[in-house]
Amino acid sequence: MKTIAALSSIITLVCVTGLAQARDLGPDEALRLRDAGTVMSFEKLNAIALSKHPGTQVHHTELEQEYGKYVYQVELRDSKGGEWELDLDASNGAILKDRVDS
User: Fold this and answer.
1) Taking a C-beta distance cutoff of 8 angstroms, is the pair 50, 56 a contact?
2) Which of 10, 44, 49, 87 is the least crowded, having the fewest Cβ atoms under 10 Å away?
3) How far is C-alpha 13 from the chain's CA centre?
4) What are the domain boundaries of the chain?
């Protein structure tokens, strides 16, 4: 029984720690960061993502703070149903992840 309680505590700690590492930013905060020059304009970040996968359209975007860095997440779709997920460094537009959404 002590083993189950200890394991449960460890799982809870890992879950809480993982959740604390990424934080979704609301629209007001995202605009404040853009206006302050902390993150690039969303139009420029979308253009970077679209240039990586020509013929796609932006389906969904989200700005998060992960490990002290602002990450712009973009979901792209093409006319044939193909989907990609990109993570960009919101401060400079560097592509951090580019993966096919399966």
Assistant:
1) yes
2) 10
3) 23
4) 23-100
98: confidence class by pLDDT, cuts 50, 70, 90: very high
Residues in the chain: 102
What local confidence, expressed as pLDDT, does residue 18 receive? Answer: 47
For the whole prediction, is pTM greater than 0.70? yes
CATH number listed for the domain at residues 23-100: 3.10.450.40
CA 81 to chain centre: 21
Q: Is 50 exposed, middle or buried (0-12, 13-18, 19+ CB in 10 A)?
A: middle
DSSP letters for 68-95: TEEEEEEEEEETTS-EEEEEEETTT--E
Question: Between these two residues, 17 and 30, which has the higher pLDDT value?
Answer: 30
User: What's the confidence (pLDDT) of residue 13?
Assistant: 40
Alpha carbon distances (Å) from 68 to 21, 25, 34, 90: 8, 13, 16, 12
- 3-class SS at 98? strand
